[in-house]
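Researcher: Quick one. two chains, 759 residues in total.
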Amino acid sequence: MSQALRAGAIVAACACASLPLAAEAEPPKVKVGSKAFTEGVVLGELATRMCAAGGAEVDHRRQLGGSVILFKALEAGEIDVYVEYTGTLAAELLHLPDARDLGAIRRALSDRGLVMSEPLGFDNTYALGVSGDLAAKKGLATVTQLATHRDLVFGISHELMERADGWPGLQRRYGLAPSELRPMDHDVAYKALAARQIDVMDLYTTDAEIASLGLTVLEDDRGYFPSYRAVIVHRAELATEAPECVTQLRRLEGAISAEAMRAMNARVKLEGQSEDVAAAEFLASRLDVESKVSAPTRFDRIAARTGEHLLLTFASLLAATALGVPLGVLCARFARLRHAVLGVAGVMQTVPSLALLVLLIPFLGIGTTPAIAALILYSLFPVVEGTVTGLSGIPAALRESAEALGLSRGFRLRSIELPLASPSIVSGVRTAAVLAVGTATIGAMVGAGGYGQPILTGVRLDSVPMILEGALPAAALAIAVQALFRGVERLVVPRGVSGGGSR
Amino acid sequence: MVDAPSPFAARFLGAARTFDARSTVGPIDLEVARGKTTVLLGPSGCGKTTLLRMLIGLAKPDSGRVEVLGESLDEERLPSVRRRMGYLIQEGGLFPHLSARQNVCLLAQHVGRDPAFIDAQVERLSALARLDPQLLQKLPSELSGGQRQRVALVRALMLEPELLLLDEPLGALDPMVRVELQEDLRAAFRTLETSVVMVTHDLAEAAFFADTLVLLHEGKIAQRGSLDDLERTPASPFVERFLSAHRPARRREVTP
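Model:
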């Protein structure tokens, strides 16, 4: 009893002694996540800079795929904060009936240990838009007014066409009667409207193009579209771990109008500025927050991405080989295991990589670990298959000669069977390596970086040079890996064993 | 190793194995004499190779059993019994990724034999098998068929086997090389005084090597004895047919 007390006193004393030290020496670490589209990254950058203003050491894990990945990462504590939309929270993440009921959303989040800020201002919902000319000529300001015109061509995005709360309901609610209805890609619709091939299109209310093309956004006067107001969601613990950050983040509440958001999107999408610049400019002019903008050179970026990509590729390849060859050896010996393993591994190949990553988040979080785990699962199949093919391709006469000599099983495997199977094993590992180089681009979806990062950014910004910044090094790496494996083959495959394993 | 040396190098005790409904080998009762050469002879599919594989544990009898060098071939004892035997097959079974010398020394090194012993054995046996020692540095693919069989013979003899098993050892060689190797093999067997079981489908070759012939037909022993026994008193019409089919070949090749 007294011993326990004494131990407790010592612990308490140590804790007290170390507390002020820790508080002085280390600023709180905050991880901000952002979605993989321009507005998401800009909002993530705003949150990042506000946290930095709150004295934290901030890590912005940019463009981490979609809402589900971010929300799971937040729940798992992999990130501390990100910006979400009320409509997405209600419909997709929390399954609540009404996105306008902020109280209900807040309560559901609180059950999960999460806190939601007040709306930041703008509402990035769907809307219908027409060209400024047309709006002036026909006097259009609301969707109800639009319904009185029956001579207009509508270009509606595929997504809205298919959504439960999309086009069919909209048409019914307002009694819309297009002269023609053309489902089309969202970006194409902007071009078609500019070329006057369509008159009406659906859009997001903060799209940068609204300003640049001089479009008029028609008011959803019967409140059909759900509300997509931006809010900050953070882990409840953040309020105690980094209270100053939360205070600073809250300054964004009500501070971002639709027009301001549109302008920031335009800075990035239309003027080619980085999200950092757009966010820093906004904060400096509206909230008087000064923040630094670092602009790494293209070379620095490629070097960093290369390091990340190599880590993803080779760590997963090493593990897949270390696991796959022994598994292949067992599979070659036991037919039942072989059927089971190759069956499961084959199915794994067909699981979309993004789905696999999302499934792994609860166990492995986000970042390099789940990306490597997913890559291992993909790379395993060719390695196991190559090993099984190599071992079962050994002529019976040779296998039996080794057995008849009286060599032990382990020695036979090491000194005879694996060397004879080596061309096929190396070929399997090479296939896995090339696969890993290509598939590692998905790592960017969960914040593991790599060449997928510029590709993702390039697709988002419709920037070919940016896409090439990821795609070209990835292609070069794939070629280098092929060359590397010719060297490995020379090293590993003994002279006298034919390289019949190449496929 | 064996307390009371049995007069047999190996015994089949009612050993049988069924492959499918139409092909069964055995049951066979047969003793293989020590220090002699026993030849298993017969047309293809007669079961001679299966019997040989039973002796080295590559085929397991479904019923009955096989005793080799005084031991039964259970899984546990198999590697150590196999190390007291030599096994040589048609294409030699040399490991293509190892040099001839590595092939030859593999087992001796694996069981931890003294390097001096290994070197001495390689030298002595190469001479016995009339194998040019320089060829030992080469890979099997760089050797001729005859050279490969000589290497395989040296490998099989490396640990001084008490029983040597040969499955059509000369089957893949051209006739000139074959005749030469036949002489060398027989000379080696006589020098070593080892027990030999050889499988062949060729009567002339069988007669050339055999102390005892065992003629097999459809998985059973048709007749056993010397060639003279078989010729003088064929046990069945099959034996007669088999002998007459091979006679011209025998006249051409067998020299007393």
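The radius of gyration of chain A is 28 Å.
Researcher: Thanks, that's what I needed.
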